[in-house]
Amino acid sequence: MKTLSPTYKPALRWNSLTRFYDQIMALTMREDLFRMLLLDPIRDQKPHYVLDVGCGTGTQALLLHRLFPDASVFGLDGDETVLAIARQKHAHAGWPVTLEQGLSTALPYPDGSMDIVTCSLLLHHLSDTDKKQSIREMWRVLIPGGALALADWGEPANDAMRLLFYGLQLFDGFDTTRANGRGLIPNMLYDGGFRQITQTGQVNTLFGTMALYYAVKPTYINQTTIR
């Protein structure tokens, strides 16, 4: 497998678990619900170019192609093992989604090249520094007025969710999940240049509370937009 970064961590931490990713998502994450809620705010848009960052096994990229059949849809992930699963899934479906290996901290796309960017369950794998850089990169590749739809762990909704999220932190690491659990992702989006930041929903799962966000790259950008 091609390695892009010595610190890269697969979605389920160990490559041996990657083949079970779809089954684990379906059993534990209320996947159909959270993906529907994630896409709801962008459903009526008419994009030409759409990017799913951290596309994993390609489920969301396929949903994006179904939602926007006339758009060019791209999926990017740092893990070649999971991309191999995505390619098999996409070939079987017969849908023309472009899948590429790359890192969210250095997206291989030109400035202002995407109308919509989506990202689900990626940021909690990253250090705070890489979270912020990834958000800046998603902002960079969006057109002015372009939209970001993002799903990741948020502040636990209650004590039960807090306990479940603690278990996830033991698995994924406290350093990378602390900002999520404190509800700081909207602050990072704002500092990364996004505006009209809205939490559009939340889903309680077996691993904690997932928060869904919608944000827009402003059409007018001044020097204080990005921090």
TrEMBL record:
GO terms for biological process: methylation. Keywords: Methyltransferase, Plasmid, Transferase. InterPro entries: Methyltransf_25, SAM-dependent_MTases_sf. Residues 50-146 form the Methyltransferase domain. One of its GO terms (molecular function) is methyltransferase activity. Pfam families: Methyltransf_25. The keyword Methyltransferase applies. The keyword Transferase applies. PANTHER family: 2-METHOXY-6-POLYPRENYL-1,4-BENZOQUINOL METHYLASE, MITOCHONDRIAL, METHYLTRANSFERASE. This is Methyltransferase type 11. It comes from Spirosoma linguale (strain ATCC 33905 / DSM 74 / LMG 10896 / Claus 1).
